[in-house]
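TL;DR need structure tokens for one chain.
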Amino acid sequence: IVTNDFGPNYPLLINPANPQLTGVSKFPYFPVGGPQPPDGFQISKDAHPIMGYVSQWGGMSVGSGMMFAANVVDGLVHQLGSKELAAVCQEALRQPQPQQQRIQEGDAVATPAVGKLLSETNYKYIIHTIPPFYNHPPLPNDQDQDEDSIHALSKRLLAESYRSSLRIAATVSSNLDNDNGNGTICMASPLLGAGCRGFPVDVAIEVAAQTLMGDATSTQQVKQGGQLKQGSMTLGFGIPSGEIRERLMDALDCEYDKNINSNHNNNSNNDGKRERQ
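>> reply
TL;DR here they are.
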């Protein structure tokens, strides 16, 4: 989705970033499912030069539980954006508050596409959102919670990542020349949470479908050609696996049908009430 983009009609990319917007500059690899190293943690001089954080990132052994930069959207985004992207990310990070050190899970910020992102892809803006780790979301006051409560919080924050990204997209779209002929805002996104954040694919699909297709008729959402349209917005998912793409589309179909039936029943009930009054 980063190097094989959807073409010039898709100038926005949703990037699942880390809270500090640092890409891979501090982490030699990404752990699947976390947890994230504590703030202020520094790699030791005795650590392995490639797998330096392995004991601090959940004690996982090197293997399928690890993702290198080239395996994740955030890693590729920062490799292409290089130092120019690092600079604009830090500027965006500190815009609300000069001393701010991180973006909260579920929030999003936008930066212009710079470096090779601008010269080698069709993206004009990158929307950085912070999905939570499925098993390690930020808990209020570090309270201990049962697994069901933890996962419920993770799902709420993941849903908010989509909502925040769409709000930011609507804001930055005023800076774009909509040359697709119909004024639609088009953005590309991976299936948030399903990579190094450790969400089971079924859960990531459920959150995406329920969030994006929620209240479908009142927000004028429709599906066309494997894409999700919401009013003047189109969200195209970049998912390498055809099987996962089909599962996502099935889930979107299901949520859309549920919302249509629900609104139809509500309208029928309201019509009946008006007739009786």
